[in-house]
Sequence to fold (581 residues):
Amino acid sequence: MWLFELSLTERGVTGYANIFFPFHSHSLASGRHKQYLWSNRVVSLGCLQKAKCMKKSGIRTCHIMSYMAELVGGYDKTPFTIKDLYNRMSSTSNVGFKGYLEHKADHDPGFYDLFAYYKGKRLLHLFWADAKSRSDYERYGHAIAFNSTYKTNSFGKPLLIWVGINNHFQTCILGFTILDNESTASYMWATRAFLACMKGVLPITIVTDGDSAIEKTLKELMPNVTHRLCYWDIHNNAISHTKDPSFGKQLTNLVFRYYTEEEFERRWAALLTHFDVEDNSYVVSLYKSRKSWAETFLRGNFFCGMTTTQRSEGFIAILKNKVNQHMKMYEFVRALDMALSWVRQREAKDEYESLHTIPQLGKTNLHNIEDELSIIYTRNMFFRVRKQMSKEGNYTVATIDVEDDAMILKLEKYPHPGTRRSVYVTDDRQLFACECQYFLSFGIPCRHIFAAIKHLHITQMPKSLILTQWTIDATQLLDVENDSYARYEDRDVEERARFGGITSKMTELAYLGSRTHYAYEIANYEIDRICAQLRNNIQIGEEGSKDKLPLHRQSDFNILNPYLSKNKGTAKMKGSNGGVA
Fold:
């Protein structure tokens, strides 16, 4: 080290070399310590970008560090410490969730977001949906479900997910809401925000978990929407309050079997007597709400086959692999987007199979209709319809009556002649209706209708029995929204995609360059040459251009992270220390 003697002047301190000591004033760092010198502790832009991509995939920073140490042969050979990596990751994560949503809105014309905040600019509620979700609601919003879940973010905020069912009979996400708590006021805000986003169009039916605050909200804002209670919540609560799993099994028959009201009342009374629960307060309240859970009263309402809120909970299972208790709110919102992209990728796969593959045919007695429906329905729905077709052979037409302009075909089930169904058919044989109301409830013809079709020797499927929602053509209804969604590309996603493409090629280069020392020298030389060329032609700042939002979209203030909420389930969040990230 060079030592200088300082000379004071009237104008201040001026330094000049007076004596030179040709030795160090301290011991030199050994080879094993050189990585701790400040000059050597550098997280390169390439390593940082890779780390951020891995972080957004749900990989913890400590595991990212372990991966990078594995690449270079050990922690002692890494050019930075784990603390350096934490610091660099934190310093580049400076975009608030509001700015992130504004950035999405700049690229997605149909994006919609709405938030409420405290006077101190702390987040209270947040709702958002993109163009794809809004167009999906226009196509598939007849029957929806929503459910709030906990333990997904460090702030203890309930996450409300609005879901529907697309033409592949798969979950489609219609919107997200982050609430302050699970109060009636919060659910009222969320429901109003959802309806405002969807232009005030109400669904026909809705499935929820039966929370009292949700019920109050629906009665006020959706009084004419048919409300169904989640079967799993009813089943689990019934077992919990009666302390008998057998009661839950017997109750299941009343939930899903389609009885007449008289038969339902008789079986309900027998159930109470058998388990001696006539005075059980929960069972009494369950009976009062029977029109919201029993198939006897709900059959004929189109629920798309939904009887539970498991659709939204299935999405949460995907999400929990991508979130942790240390995430900031905007990181949590980004994690939701990543989970959403996984769901939509699965939808694209279903669409490909429906358009470009052919199912094995000849599985039913209605060959002509089976062939016709295989190119009308999406693949998943075709299999569901064919399952009903395959069971038509269990029924025979016992009698045919004529009333006005319709025929009434009375069917008997083999080998149970006491089981009968009536199918009504107009004279032109275009309109069919079965007393089981399966088509009204699920949107596909029942086995009884297919039995009538075979008996009448009909070889072409009546158009009245094909619900557009389940067809391949359902996605072509709203071309404008589809086009605007297809054009949306987040700049952050674009950069990550380019980075990923180059990284994939560099992986092969790294493998070939590591085979021999000569190959290693060639690879290093070429990489250095290309990097120097890119630096000369492209101006890259210390952090690059990532996370820079369009100035015209930035607000005068940014909404801050919310306060920690103590809702049910918050304290049990795995790994949570109850603090604010």
Remarks:
- The first strand starts at residue 5 and ends at 9.
- The radius of gyration is 32 Å.
